[in-house]
Amino acid sequence: MNDNEEKTDKTVGRNKVADNRRRPTVIQRLVVNICRFLVALTFIFSGYVKAIDPLGLQYKLQDYLTALNLSGLLPDIVTLSAAIALAALEFCLGVFLLLAIQRRATTRVAFVFMVFMTIVTLWLWIANPISDCGCFGDAVHLTNGQTLMKNIVLLVCSFILMLYPKMMVILVSRTNQWIAMHYSILFIVLSSIWSLYALPHFDFRPYHIGANIPEGMVIPEGAPQPEFRTTFILEKDGVRKSFTLDDYPDSTWTFIDSKTETVREGYVPPIHDFSITAMDTGDDITEEVINDTNYVFLLISPHLETASDDNFGEIDQLYEYAQDHHYAFYGLTASDEGGVALWREMTGAEYPFSNVDETTLKTMIRSNPGLILIKNGTVIRKWSHNRLPDIQRYKQPLHTSPLGQMPSTTVAEKIAAVLLWFALPLLILILADRMWAWTKWLKKKKRYQNIYKHHPRKKEET
């Protein structure tokens, strides 16, 4: 062996040792990919449940603006667009992490996203301006403390991913990643648009189809009761002191002020602000509505001034149908008499209106207006104003009509539909891509074998 060959062998040996030192261990790869799947699945779930309820996220963003004394600063179209964009960003980041698409850029954006969200939740935990951050929409409710802990864990995981993006196992090769990227963006944006047009594919709110309103208002026996502490500020001889009921002084002290604070939250039923007041009489008709043994139509509009009047003709036909079959029909709104008068002038509505809390109406249905059918206080059907039932096809009474029955589609079938439309195409893409990559690897291996066969010296040096 000559000197040049000896130097070459030494160089190759040193390079192999260096490569072995830089090569990540199995434990390192395992930790990185566990972090990857944890962040990815959380982002996908969180982004999806918010994307299918863009109005709910818009309401939450408006709550944040109110807490910052910025209420009314941005028009509704801006907050709604921001809600759709935020949910889509979170969902797509989750998919890109799951498939290891654009690993460096994706992990950096995910880390910046988590830094911002952790700062927001830290503020929520300290100042407590909002009791629920809305991180998982209405699907999962967390306290501000729980949300902060969750975000700290995700922040640490996203930091690890940003440091070691190359340890994430690629599921789709760079050549085909654009397909998964564009399909994910298209899917989640269209999901939000469809939810705005129709109604959310999944309804996690207490007024979902099948929910019984009276049962949702019941406080179970033995449920924890709220505890309050009242502090009294009294004055005597120019000196002010604070007292509680336990050490309240004699009558020589002069009362100045008092304040009551909650020491411990009690059980709050899922439905706790449902109250209907007839506008014409001022009577509370809540019990009359939820205990009606017949069908009852509820036309829901938080604000009639901004409600869509495109389908008022179909609403009037439904009201006439209800009258013909002796079904009660109520318009529920938070608008005042002026708003009701304006609506009647535009649509010719003759059905009676009642007042209900604005937040309750927004919770009941994500449509303005929207229609709910109940019986014995149980929600039977819900319709967006864009997809009202064609009453001309169902002239028979509701108890003999499909409209009077709960939809037969189960939650499992809805989940299967989402998997069919989104997960299955991506799975097919992954399998096709891996087959293509494997075939490419086999061809490359065969080519090198042919080279080594005709050049044995090269094989030996390598």
Query: Which range best describes the helical content: under 10%, 10-25%, 25-40%, 40-55%, 55-70% or over 70%?
Result: 40-55%
Q: Could you say which structural class the secondary elements and strand pairing correspond to?
A: alpha+beta
Low-confidence stretches: 458-462
Total number of helices: 14
> What is the overall silhouette?
flat
- Strand order in the largest sheet: 4-7-6-5-8-9
The major pleated sheet works out as: 6 strands, mixed
Mean pLDDT: 88
Instruction: Give the terminus-to-terminus CA distance.
Output: 16 Å
Number of DSSP-assigned strands: 9
Radius of gyration: 31 Å
Percentage of residues in strands: 5-15%
Order of helices and strands: HHHHHHHHEEEEHEHEHEHEEHH
Report a brief summary of the structure.
With 462 residues, this protein is an alpha+beta fold.
Question: Would you give an account of this structure?
Answer:
There is one protein chain. This protein has 462 residues and is of the alpha+beta class. The C terminus is likely disordered. Strands 4-7-6-5-8-9 form a 6-stranded mixed β-sheet. Strands 2-1-3 form a 3-stranded antiparallel β-sheet, with no helix packed on it. The chain is built from 14 helices and 9 strands. The longest helix is centred in the last third of the chain and has 44 residues.
Write the topology of this structure.
Blueprint: H1 3-22, H2 26-51, H3 54-67, H4 76-99, H5 103-127, H6 144-163, H7 177-197, H8 213-216, E1 227-236, E2 239-243, E3 254-264, E4 277-278, H9 286-290, E5 295-301, H10 312-324, E6 328-333, H11 337-347, E7 353-355, H12 358-364, E8 370-375, E9 378-384, H13 411-454, H14 456-461
